[in-house]
Write a sequence for this structure.
């Protein structure tokens, strides 16, 4: 029985690739066909980039779907999903397009397969405008486990801008249904640690400089904790040249926050370290339970879960509002955002609550 495709405007709100990731994944899981128009209409290079194209092809492959309009620069696509297939799936951006964004679109789909899936994702592991793979492993993955999501991620090769060449192997176990998650108590920050890296021809000293500058910046605000940022020279497991840093803070209640930055030509290493440290501090100050990057990544899982999720956050980002908008159009989930008025909240603390749609896995 062919029902009419859900029409989605790809230029609304954040107007970027995230609309495609959330809508394609939900189309695959709910079985609703979608038609997305005006894709990335306001961007300097409108339409699909290699990153988005390989993500859509991966989802279409996962759900034996039929995908129309899937070419670089295309501003309109249609996806008609079929049955979600477990087993091996490969996606290659053939650029430094982020493997973490490929995982964002594929992971929810693979949870609704009939058995475990192996995803071989190729591209950039530590890329601009996307979570670094270290973030996916150290922050995203542990919080996902609260929803009942279990995946393993083996980083075979790291890849950087502009070449890419990174590769991760992800094994995803299916679920019957997702558990709702409540994270409303931040507690105290108990640990701060991280990783500064250089790869390729870049000197090890850059890693040390990033780390030292980051520690110095955090020290100004958080005096009592030992900050352990390790420096790494990536050897055989890296393709191309790159440098970057990720710093993670852990709270007494198990909340995780991160700040990260990547080196660019002509930017001093200490500036990269300071940028990551300031990002981390900004995400701790608001007394929420998730950082600004995890916030929007959780929306699709809250929407699919069976029951009510509540997440305490800092300012609600445009990415999050966009994900909510898409989730409400494609599922029965209902979201509400309320301002926190307790004594611990800054004037920018909110609770995102979701009555999940309770999608259960018909293939298990």
């Amino acid at each position: 029985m062919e029902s009419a495709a859900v029409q989605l405007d790809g230029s609304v709100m954040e107007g970027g690739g995230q609309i495609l990731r959330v809508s394609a994944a939900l189309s695959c899981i709910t079985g609703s066909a979608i038609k997305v128009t005006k894709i990335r209409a306001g961007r300097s290079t409108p339409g699909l980039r290699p990153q988005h194209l390989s993500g859509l092809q991966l989802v279409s492959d996962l759900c034996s779907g039929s995908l129309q309009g899937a070419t670089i620069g295309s501003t309109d696509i249609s996806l008609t999903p079929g049955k979600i297939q477990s087993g091996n799936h490969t996606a290659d951006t053939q650029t430094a397009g982020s493997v973490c964004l490929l995982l964002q679109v594929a992971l929810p789909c693979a949870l609704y397969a009939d058995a475990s899936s192996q995803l071989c994702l190729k591209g950039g592991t530590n890329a601009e405008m996307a979570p670094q793979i270290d973030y996916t492993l150290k922050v995203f993955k542990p919080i996902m486990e609260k929803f009942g999501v279990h995946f393993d991620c083996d980083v075979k090769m790291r890849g950087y801008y502009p070449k890419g060449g990174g590769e991760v192997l992800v094994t995803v176990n299916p679920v019957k249904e997702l558990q709702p998650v409540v994270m409303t108590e931040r507690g105290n920050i108990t640990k701060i640690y991280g990783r500064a890296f250089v790869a390729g021809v870049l000197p090890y000293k850059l890693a040390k400089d990033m780390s030292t500058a980051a520690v110095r910046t955090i020290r100004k605000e958080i005096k009592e904790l030992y900050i352990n940022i390790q420096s790494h020279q990536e050897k055989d497991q890296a393709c191309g040249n790159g440098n970057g840093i990720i710093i993670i803070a852990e709270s007494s209640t198990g909340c995780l926050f991160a700040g990260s930055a990547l080196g660019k030509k002509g930017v001093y290493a200490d500036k990269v370290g300071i940028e990551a440290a300031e990002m981390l501090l900004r995400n701790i100050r608001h007394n929420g339970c998730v950082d600004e990057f995890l916030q929007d990544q959780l929306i699709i899982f809250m929407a699919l879960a069976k029951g009510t999720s509540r997440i305490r956050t800092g300012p609600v980002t445009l990415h999050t509002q966009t994900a909510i908008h898409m989730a409400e159009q494609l599922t029965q989930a209902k979201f509400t955002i309320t301002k926190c008025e307790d004594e611990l909240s800054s004037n920018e603390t909110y609770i995102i609550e979701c009555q999940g749609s309770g999608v259960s896995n018909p293939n298990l």
Observations:
- The helical segments are 17-30, 50-62, 99-110, 133-146, 205-221, 269-285, 292-304, 318-330.
- The chain has a mean pLDDT of 96.
- Residues 184 and 312 are 5 Å apart (CA to CA).
